[in-house]
Amino acid sequence: MRAVEARCDAPAADATASLPDAWIENIDAWHAAPGRKLRKDLAYARRGAAALSIEDGLPPTEAYRLYLLTVGRHGGRARYNAAYFHRLSALCHVDRRMVARCYRDRAGDVVAFAIGVRNEDSAYYLHAAANVMARGTGISDLLLEHLAARAREWGCRRFDLMASPESQPGLIAFKRKWGNRFGFSVTRDHACTPLGGVLTVLMRARRAATSTPRWLLRE
Fold first, then answer.
1. Among 136, 134, 71, which residue's Cα sits nearest to residue 106?
2. Nearest-angstrom CA–CA distance, 136 and 217
3. Tens of pLDDT along 18-46?
4. Alpha-helical segments (H) within 27-99
5. Residue 211 contacts by C-beta under 8 Å, 6 or more apart in sequence?
6. pTM of full prediction above 0.85
7. Who contacts 7 (Cβ-Cβ below 8 Å, separation ≥6)?
8. Residue ranges of the alpha helices (H) in the chain?
9. Mean pLDDT calculated for residue range 100-106
10. How many CB atoms sit inside 10 A of residue 36's CB?
11. 3-state DSSP call for residue 75?
């Protein structure tokens, strides 16, 4: 079987999985007129994070620890190991298609981070995590604001907030607050037959403009 992803306006009956998706289309126009709630939440976050220090880059060990805490809080399963975060950290230092930012508390501990990546004319919200204290300040909004600003600097047309599992309604609502387009990321399985191969090629071509970049996962 081959899993093929596409973006649809509604859940597909023949899909293996349909996950809620959100993205910002025409990011320059969106930036000129953000929603009222988003403006209010950003103002709150700036006040709440005033005592935190900002640092560009990704401290891999601390980022991995926050990632595990976030996955555990949502009852999920860790998909990435420590070596993956070390590779991401190294790439963020040398590859201009990537951006990372973290916040530290007064003790110097990393309390939140986010990573974004560019692929052609699209930017992607790749990873983010925050501890309980930082989440209460609204730090996630400040991190996403930084990634969206970098997407504009890159000249991207679209900023993809990525699909989220339905078991995390809070995360879905957070991304919908930022997005101006909504749909479903759909996965279908096709048998490895000549017809299945043709369908796979056609569906890959259809999703090419919004595909998740894979180059950063190479060993």
1. 134
2. 32
3. 677 888 999 999 888 888 899 999 999 99
4. 27-32, 36-48, 60-73, 82-94
5. 5, 119, 204
6. no
7. 21, 183, 184, 185, 186, 207, 210
8. 27-32, 36-48, 60-73, 82-94, 132-136, 139-154, 169-178, 194-206
9. 96
10. 7
11. coil
